[in-house]
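Slide 14.
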Amino acid sequence: MGRTIQGSFSGHAKFIKEQLAAVKTATLAASVNAAELGTALAIAETDKKGSVDRGQLKNAWESKPMVFGAQIRNGAPYAGYVEQGTRPHFPPLKPILAWVMRQFQKDEQDAMPIARAIQWKIFHHGTKPKFIMKDILPKISKVWQAEIESAIEKIS
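Slide 15: predicted structure.
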């Protein structure tokens, strides 16, 4: 035989709203913490993969709180091309030449053949992806999960 439970839920509504607000606050904080750690990991991975010339890509990593979580982004105009690589295309020579001159301490005349060789290689083969974010996402996911579990445990 089943039992019937009677009661009023009027007092529980306030408790439920408070708990939901606490969960929302805690998960947002956990997401922001995970994104900040993820930004530090992205900076380190950029260094590790040798993607640093003048530091624009490395210094463009940032975490940003959002309404329902947080975001890790890189505002460098070429960040997507570094991450995913490119198909073959004919790149402009001037930035490649400037890069060769910086990297190899060459004057323009000595750097030009190297720059043209790089330009033709990109024209025929594109560029390989570095997968900076792709490679650190599992670590960020684990941190985020641990942060969420810890936050919810504190509320319980």
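Speaker note: The helical segments are 10-48, 56-59, 79-84, 93-104, 108-125, 132-155.
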